[in-house]
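In line with agreed milestones, the collection of sequences with tokenised folds has grown. A representative record is reproduced below.
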Amino acid sequence: MKKLLLVSLIALLSMEVQAQMSYVGRQYPNGNIHYTGSLSGDKESGLQKFYHTNGELKSDGSYAEGKIHGFWKFYHENGLLKTEGEYENFKKKGEWLVYDEEGNLLTKKYY
């Protein structure tokens, strides 16, 4: 009986967590995707992707409690990597790499 109660409680809690997550997206007037991501309540949470107006990926990374957090990548309009690095509570952290529009490494910055 205790196992059944525990399993029921775990199932109810997992349904509550899933119910609080929602997925969002928006398009540019030209029909291309502007961004996609997820919300926990009214705050960004988890993987977020933003796109240039031409449809190429602009950036992707994670949010935690509405703040940029974790590893992020930013891209030039031609789709090649522009910058990559880590955020912690909306602040750059550690090594950041910067690339030119041809994909060549330009600089390394440390925060």
Remarks:
- Residues 1-19 have pLDDT under 50 and may be disordered.
- The two ends are 54 Å apart (CA to CA).
- DSSP finds one helix and nine strands in the chain.
